[in-house]
């Protein structure tokens, strides 16, 4: 794994230098990493990127080249540069497992460490978690729109750089895609890869049918033909059917055809009719070409006869919402052995933080197994007893309900303890299975593409009281 220690903002290093100058380097602090809602696309999110965050933390160290470069800037003293030579992470990290469904303002990660260490982690953790969570969430929305059809990730050539392509494809698998066209992602993470040929294959032969025959000869048991190079219905589909009959005569069955342009609803319905009449009802119709959840939803509503969706640009770049609003905020500082809660005040109520060391609980209905509500609570609060719990909307406190027949699950798990990794990282396949199970625990109204019902994310009474007490103190 690459050493990404220097992948940080300069102000993290200048703050660290200041902490050392004022003798604060051993002061422990707790930071929360969470995201803020940005329209319907982030009404919920699919947590992703923890494996890469773990690799980053495990490999934290400043090389002599790093220190020489920092010295060349002329802004850091020798004491700080000497400190960096022995730098390593010694703190604790809690996080929700990858694939967990999360909501705005819920802690995705909780970092408790000497303040210099915790401060350095901010930029890289936000970079890693924000990106993969964003793409996993976009992928989840696309998969929801496909309503049971298979979705493949095809975005590498349009991704914003190699890392975005590799880890974006990884995140798309977490979000529900069944495969990716990205061969390196398949190799690195052991996930299925898929694809067929491009228009250039067809154009490189004298006739469309000769291109199809050549492809079928090379891949007789995996023959998927792109039929829209010249004329989909007059040429592409009839030629594909001819080759499929030839394959069948040789003892092979075709996979299907792919449509990449034109009116996909009309073309797919006509192609389905032609394939069925020719005796190929099991041949699948794949579609690609500037698809996203909105387009897929509309095509489904129009009766498109499409079995598999290949989604590229708009998913790998999360077009329409290019960044997750993830933030990293100080929640508590240790003073004389006791953690003192801290709060950020803002004129914008959405930016007022939740103070203190916190836990995150999810309550499930015992009968249906569906999620009822989440509760952000203080570290020492326990909701595992099954006793009735009254929860309330922290913005409209008159909205209250009592949970009785439930079981509670703490969502944050220990990842690092005193600088040592204590979490067994699952495989990407295991994460994708878990993510699907997670998604199935939520009612459909919370997953709507437009105007989804608001899922309950409440504060415990003690946390609510602490927050408002600190606000009053700051205001006076």
Low-confidence parts, pLDDT < 50 over ≥5 residues? none
Main sheet record: 7 strands, antiparallel
Shape: globular
Task: Please tally the helical runs, counting DSSP H or I stretches of 4 or more residues.
Answer: 15
Q: Structural class given helices, strands, pairing?
A: alpha/beta
- Specify Rg, calculated over alpha carbons: 26 Å
Which strand order spans the largest sheet, edge to edge or round the barrel? 13-12-1-5-3-19-20
Helical amount among residues, as a percent range?
Answer: 25-40%
In round numbers, the mean pLDDT is 96
Euclidean distance between termini CA atoms: 50 Å
Strand content: 15-25%
For the secondary structure, the number of strands is: 21
Explain how this protein is built.
It contains 15 helices and 21 strands. Helix 10 links the parallel strand 8 and strand 9. The protein is of the alpha/beta class. The radius of gyration is 26 Å and the shape is globular.
Provide the descriptors you would attach to this structure in a database record:
38% helix, 6-stranded parallel beta sheet, alpha/beta, 476 residues, 21% strand
Q: SSE layout and pairings?
A:
Elements: H1 10-21, E1 28-36, E2 45-46, H2 50-58, H3 64-72, H4 78-85, E3 92-95, E4 101-102, E5 109-114, H5 115-146, E6 150-153, H6 162-175, E7 179-180, H7 183-189, H8 199-203, H9 208-218, E8 224-226, H10 232-249, E9 256-259, H11 264-277, E10 284-287, H12 293-301, E11 308-311, H13 313-316, E12 325-335, E13 338-341, E14 358-365, E15 371-378, E16 389-392, E17 400-403, E18 406-410, E19 413-417, E20 420-421, H14 428-440, E21 457-459, H15 461-475
Parallel strand pairs: 6-7, 6-11, 8-9, 9-10, 10-11, 15-21
Antiparallel strand pairs: 1-5, 1-12, 2-4, 3-5, 3-19, 12-13, 14-15, 14-18, 16-17, 19-20
Helix pairs in contact: 1-5, 2-5, 3-4, 5-6, 5-12, 6-14, 9-10, 10-11
